[in-house]
Design a protein that fits this description.
Layout (H helix, E strand, L loop, with lengths): L9 E5 L6 H10 L5 E5 L5 H6 L5 E5 L7 E9 L1 E6 L19 E3 L14 E2 L7 H9 L4 E5 H6 L5 E5 L6 E8 L5 H10 L43 E3 L6 E3 L2
Parallel strand pairs: 1-2, 1-3, 6-7, 6-8
Antiparallel strand pairs: 3-10, 4-10, 5-8, 5-9, 11-12
């Protein structure tokens, strides 16, 4: 699909924890005739949906395969550890990886973090989703390292979270297949980057209104040639206070 092709709708996928509402609202205001289909998908499946042609763009967590996908980083989230409220680390305002050395760290299959980047001991089996991992944390089976937005999304009264110092951060990006940079994708890029509707790099500009030429001010009879900037006609200029001519020195 080339940039000149226009699809009848725009299909946007987003991963849990991302809040696309503000961008969708701007889209609906600017392009009311182009429906936007918004679908939440697990973080681990977003890239496959983009490459398979099932979505035009996605709000995903990095990394993605940059050989086939384009990506514009949008923001970076703080990483936290989710623990039961009676866990020892809750006595501190922040947690270091060494504090979790004796804990089992759960790693859901839909998580983009790698085992090498996580502190503590990995679980023997990986839970399928972040929601499943939260249930295991509540049961006292382990702890969970996630971006802050996911900890808030899965908030429970019996769990809490603390910032995890030295942990890898999670970056959110707008991504799309490099070979399918359509006009609609360009429209959405402009929106997430905060461009105005008339930006030449955003959505195609509306035709500018034709301006009438400014009326030329009429000159008094005889023209203005030879007048000085103070309004005189040569050797004298009027004194603005007395209204009498005064001789130039």
């Amino acid at each position: 699909m080339t940039g000149s092709e226009v699809s009848p709708s725009f299909r946007l996928v987003y991963v849990p924890g991302v809040m696309p509402d503000k961008w969708v609202r701007v889209w609906n205001e600017r392009l009311p005739d182009v429906p936007l289909t918004l679908t939440q998908v697990p973080a681990g499946t977003a890239q496959g949906l983009l490459l398979g042609g099932d979505a035009d763009a996605g709000l995903v967590r990095l990394p993605v395969d940059r050989t086939v996908l384009s990506a514009i980083p949008l923001y970076t989230e703080q990483t936290v550890v989710v623990v039961p409220k009676d866990h020892l680390v809750t006595a501190a305002d922040a947690v270091s990886p060494e504090d979790l050395a004796d804990d089992i760290v759960l790693h859901p299959l839909d998580d983009v973090l790698t085992w090498e980047s996580l502190p503590g001991r990995p679980a023997l089996e990986r839970p399928a989703t972040t929601a499943d991992a939260i249930e295991l944390v509540a049961a006292g089976i382990g702890v969970l390292v996630v971006p802050l937005s996911l900890a808030r999304l899965h908030h429970r009264k019996d769990l809490t979270h603390r910032p995890l110092e030295g942990a890898p951060e999670s970056s959110v990006a707008l991504s799309w297949p490099e070979a399918a940079t359509t006009d609609r994708v360009e429209d959405f890029i402009g929106i997430v980057r905060g461009r105005t509707v008339n930006s030449t790099r955003g959505r195609r500009q509306e035709p500018a209104r034709e301006r009438k030429p400014a009326a030329r001010r009429q000159q008094p009879a005889g023209g203005t040639a030879g007048r000085s900037r103070r309004g005189g006609t040569g050797g004298t200029a009027k004194n603005p206070r007395r209204g009498k001519p005064r001789r130039r020195s």
